[in-house]
């Protein structure tokens, strides 16, 4: 027969983080009941209970951990570390992609990246690497140079212009914070939690979005 443990009474349950500080509670042995006619014994497990002293200490620990509303107070992190692109601001879809397309249009390259295509290109790290991989896979624009060295310079010039257009979007505050970001940051700072941005994005762009 499988033995089923009876649930502990409410007064013996402790929040997870305070339970680890209490002394281990030994499980009481199951009582052996009279055997059935077939010789099989039935086990009746005794519920886990704390002694009166331990119960009082448990209740005191739970009360100490409870917040003003009576619920256990949640532990605060020491710091919140954010990435920038796609976390604080949806910069990839509505910022970098738009700036790439504006750059392509200015140079009359006949290239445009829609949301679906750009989502695939994001698997490639780095804007210059992204353009190079795309042109290598499809076809280089007719206005692009032919040699590898010249193409590197061509890609670098495209990326520089893209960055200028992207920064213009940032400076004009055309890329708002994602929903809930401002509230989360304000609450964290209000409770003394340090907040920082850890990103490989352009530092100036990160500072403009703070």
Automatic annotation (TrEMBL):
It holds the Pfam family Hydrolase. Coiled coil: none annotated. GO terms for molecular function: hydrolase activity. It comes from the Eukaryota. This is Uncharacterized protein. The gene is LOC125520568.
